[in-house]
Amino acid sequence: MSQQDAAKEQANTRKNVRIVSVFTAAAIGIVGVLVILYAWQLPPFTRHAQFTDNAYVRGQTTFISPQVNGYITDVRVKDFDKVKKGDLLLQIDDRIYRQRVHQAEAQLAMKIAALNNNLQQRKSAEAVIAKNDAALKNARAQNLKNQADLKRVKDLTADGSLSVRERDAALASAAQGSADIEQAKATLEMSRQDLQTVIVNRGSLEADVDNAKAALELAQIDLQNTRIVAPRDGQLGQIAVRLGAYVTAQAPTSPR
């Protein structure tokens, strides 16, 4: 083979290599484009894909909202996490709400103490009534004695056995006995009214205890609501709050 033929053959070989390289690169490029079109379901790979501009996913969406105001001190989940019912999602600063529970507990203890004191007051009032009733009976007995003494004094004064002065003293004692009876009656009536006041006041104190119990329950509910938990199993959407954010009641934090 002549040198001219060899050079010509070498040139043809290089030309063929270039052609193969070009076709190879083109094929790789085409394959790459096709892969991208398939991945994004673009033409011509759209025959199995369905598109609509008004579609929606059938399911239940729950908006999770805080029931109390406060700063977020702990975030236990991330966007789109799967959660179980009762899982802690967010924690609101609970220091104020704990103090409110303590205050409500103290108020309830005070109201219960006042109610118990009312029972003691009733017992004391009943004891006073018994004492005043005994005093009235004693005053009546003393008055009977004074009236009997007065009758004897009058008889003795009439026959000259006693002086008028002694008769006047007996009259005064009898009059004092009658006054003592009236005083004892008034004192007994006042003690009975005091007892009635204690009895009536008990109803108000019982209502105070009920109100204090209700206030404590509300404070406990608010404290419990500082823990924002998942209401059911599901998957979170995008969480709308972050650590340190201030949230208000009923403000949605995340759809589920």
UniProtKB/TrEMBL annotation:
<keyword id="KW-0472">Membrane</keyword>
<comment type="similarity">
    <text>Belongs to the membrane fusion protein (MFP) (TC 8.A.1) family.</text>
</comment>
<dbReference type="Pfam" id="PF25917">
    <property type="entry name" value="BSH_RND"/>
</dbReference>
<dbReference type="InterPro" id="IPR058625">
    <property type="entry name" value="MdtA-like_BSH"/>
</dbReference>
<feature type="domain" description="Multidrug resistance protein MdtA-like barrel-sandwich hybrid">
    <location>
        <begin position="64"/>
        <end position="253"/>
    </location>
</feature>
<protein>
    <submittedName>
        <fullName>Secretion protein HlyD family protein</fullName>
    </submittedName>
</protein>
<dbReference type="InterPro" id="IPR050739">
    <property type="entry name" value="MFP"/>
</dbReference>
<keyword id="KW-1133">Transmembrane helix</keyword>
<keyword id="KW-0812">Transmembrane</keyword>
<feature type="transmembrane region" description="Helical">
    <location>
        <begin position="20"/>
        <end position="40"/>
    </location>
</feature>
